[in-house]
């Protein structure tokens, strides 16, 4: 088993924010990975703290969700508030089509 990397507060906030956006949009790790053009395993490692999200990842997440980087980095509440209506799942935890960036 891989050893978790030490996470800064910003990285922890981003992980929680990504989880909230995934839930609000109906993304799975697989669908988010497809949208970001990385593997599901990479998403899993980033979300469980075994790997860090990079600045390039933050830009890709911003584009994927349509949420400006400052709002993305402000935490889950702000990021979900700024989520474009078209990206939201019909129901929380529902499914939405993948938008590849």
Structure commentary:
- The chain has 101 residues and is mainly α.
- Helix content is 54%, strand content 0%.
- The chain has 6 helices and no strands.
- The protein is globular, with a radius of gyration of 13 Å.
**Average pLDDT across residues?**
87
Q: Unreliable runs, pLDDT <50, ≥5 residues?
A: none
Q: Roughly how many Å apart are the termini?
A: 31 Å
Strands, count: 0
Summarize the main sheet.
Answer: none
Structural class: mainly alpha
Helix fraction bin? 40-55%
Order of helices and strands: HHHHHH
The global form is globular
Oligomer: single chain
If you compute it from the alpha carbons, what radius of gyration comes out, rounded to the nearest whole angstrom? 13 Å
Features:
single chain; 101 residues; mainly alpha; 6 helices; 54% helix
Question: Short summary of the structure?
Answer:
The protein is mainly α. It contains 6 helices and no strands.
Give the arrangement of secondary structure elements.
Blueprint lengths: L8 H17 L3 H8 L3 H8 L7 H11 L3 H4 L3 H7 L19
């Amino acid at each position: 088993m891989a050893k978790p990397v030490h996470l800064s507060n910003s990285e922890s906030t981003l992980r929680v924010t990504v989880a909230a956006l995934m839930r609000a949009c109906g993304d799975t790790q697989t669908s988010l990975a497809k949208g970001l053009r990385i593997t599901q395993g990479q998403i899993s490692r980033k979300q469980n703290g075994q790997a860090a999200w990079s600045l390039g990842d933050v830009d890709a997440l911003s584009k994927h969700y349509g949420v400006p980087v400052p709002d993305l980095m402000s935490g889950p509440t702000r990021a979900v508030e700024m989520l474009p209506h078209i990206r939201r799942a019909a129901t929380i935890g529902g499914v939405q089509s993948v938008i590849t960036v």
